[in-house]
Specification:
By secondary structure, this protein is mostly helical. The protein is 61% helix and 4% strand. The chain contains twelve helices and three strands; from the N terminus they run ααααβαααββααααα. Strands 1-3-2 form a three-stranded mixed β-sheet. α3 crosses α8 (177-189) and α4 runs antiparallel to α5. The radius of gyration is 20 Å and the shape is globular.
């Protein structure tokens, strides 16, 4: 949440940098680039933890398992409505263009999980891995806006305008297919937080997952093997070369983008579980208050 806050106010502090993309390494200073890079952790970890949280909801402690279908459908549709009303208005105080962004993508992912969670857990794992590791194969597939399938493909894999020159323009900015894979993997990982699993064991597993994920990223990215639309290149300075190596595609999120964020996310989850400083307790209390407020506003669902 704090990292997202920094990212959402960066334009205020970097108004002297008139650029369209803070990840354009030839136009952007290192401070702006790495500030934006840090924010890349947010969406994948949020979506992954959404799936994990749904498993915890479906398997409450000392109670029989329960279906999460209704829970997911109501909240998924709630997020979509929130995206197309309050959030869009908050961006520009107008409705000239309706942007379908991250809240929309999470809502769609939750609706998909509402149905897919009924599958056996092993099939959820397989489908999640196929989507996350395989969606880059689909990159060459494109549709013209006059072709059948354009709207579907724009929503699920590409980004672009669904409606133009109408009463209101509609743009899908967050392709949802990779996020469906991430939420499925989060749901599959849910049992790691079962109360029967000791904290020390869970931390060891998370550390293993984190280092394994980042090692795989280094192999795939280091040799430009697979998983990224634009391969990295050696630049005229070490810092820019590092920036090129870390400049992963976000729309749709490439395999490298997801491995980078989730690998660090696993390590952070292991680290946070054993953190007990006063500062960290304040952060946790603040987060709990925010979550409680959000839940209280949607109790009618």
């Amino acid at each position: 949440m704090l990292i997202m806050l920094v990212d959402h106010v960066r334009e205020h502090f970097f108004t002297h940098h008139h650029i369209t993309d803070p990840m354009a390494i030839q136009e952007t200073g290192s401070s702006l680039f790495f500030t934006r890079l840090l924010a890349h952790l947010c969406a994948p970890i949020f979506v992954f933890l959404t799936g994990l949280s749904v498993w915890l909801y479906s398997n409450p402690k000392d109670k029989p398992p329960r279906s999460a279908t209704s829970f997911l459908l109501k909240r998924g549709f709630f997020l979509i409505v929130l995206e197309i009303t309050l959030i869009n208005f908050a961006w520009s105080a107008s409705y000239h263009t309706l942007y379908l962004q991250v809240i929309w993508a999470i809502g769609i992912s939750m609706i998909c999980l509402a149905f897919l969670s009924k599958m056996p857990r092993v099939w959820i794992e397989i489908l999640g891995f196929i989507i996350v590791f395989g969606h880059n194969v689909l990159t060459p597939i494109t549709f013209e806006n006059t072709e059948f399938g354009y709207n579907f493909w724009t929503v699920f894999h590409d980004r672009g305008y669904l409606v133009t020159n109408g009463f209101i323009d509609i743009r899908a900015s967050y392709p949802v297919l990779p996020w469906i894979g991430v939420i499925l993997l989060g749901y599959f990982t849910g049992p790691l937080y079962h109360h029967f699993i000791a904290s020390a064991k869970r931390q060891r597993i998370l550390m293993f997952l984190g280092f394994s994920t980042l090692t795989l990223l280094l192999i795939l990215s280091g040799w430009n093997i697979y998983g990224e639309t634009l391969p990295w290149e050696v630049q005229d300075s070490v810092l820019k070369t590092i920036a090129s190596f870390l400049n992963y595609t976000k729309y749709p999120p490439s395999l490298h983008f997801l491995l980078f964020a989730l690998g660090i996310g696993f390590l952070l989850l292991a680290y946070f579980e054993k953190m007990n400083s006063r500062f960290f307790q304040i952060l946790k209390c603040t987060a709990l208050l925010l979550c409680s407020f959000i839940l209280s506003t949607s109790t009618f669902f």
